[in-house]
Design a protein that fits this description.
Blueprint (H helix, E strand, L loop, with lengths): L1 H14 L18 E7 L4 H17 L11 E19 L2 E18 L13 E8 L2 E2 L2 E2 L1 H27 L15
Parallel strand pairs: 1-2
Antiparallel strand pairs: 2-3, 3-4, 5-6
Helix pairs in contact: 2-3
């Protein structure tokens, strides 16, 4: 009886059609894209490189990454890195931020050949993350604080890159993270 149920379940699963979802810009020929940095307006070169790595990582997952340089390619702009304090705490009798919210904004587009008109501009895509301020024995620990801040900025940059790639491929992705942001 169990074997028959298993056989029927397997047969029904194989016979059901897929949901029909397809990326908006999906190419039947399996186009592969190179990735390059068009410009970065932030001073942190590592964060800009993490955006590119995020784009490459997501394109590779989707089977759309080409190695090396050339065309067609994704051109990436890293526009802005943001910081804002989250709450206030008294540390050693002085007001300090309890946490810092780190954000990064980028955009990307596809260029098919040298001098060609850019296609599929993603618009501004932003990701954010909160970093708690490190204190040790009631005092601010600037070394640990700087380390956690840099880690958060790199993680946010990588997430922006993945989101840019998904938008370029036509997947539905929010351009700005709000209250229900992904971690």
């Amino acid at each position: 009886m169990i074997e028959r149920r298993f056989f029927v379940a397997a047969l029904v699963t194989l016979a059901l059609p897929s949901c029909g979802y397809r990326a908006l810009y999906a190419d039947a020929d399996g186009e592969r894209l190179h990735v390059t940095l068009s410009r970065s307006l932030i001073p942190d070169a590592v964060a800009a490189d993490e955006v590119l790595q995020g784009v490459r990582e997501q394109l590779a997952r989707e089977g759309a990454l080409a190695a090396g340089e050339g065309y067609p390619r994704v051109e990436v702009e890293v526009l802005r890195a943001d910081e804002s304090s989250e709450g206030v705490a008294a540390v050693a009798g002085q007001p300090r931020a309890r946490a810092t919210e780190v954000g990064l904004v980028g955009r990307a587009w596809i260029v098919r050949a040298q001098g060609a008109v850019p296609e599929r501009d993603t618009g501004d895509v932003r990701a954010m993350d909160a970093v708690t301020v490190d204190t040790r024995e009631g005092r601010l620990d600037p070394r640990a604080d700087a380390l956690h801040h840099d880690d958060a900025l790199r993680a946010v940059a990588r997430r922006v890159g993945r989101r840019l790639a998904l938008r370029l491929l036509g997947h539905p992705v929010a351009v700005d993270e709000g209250i229900g942001r992904e971690r």
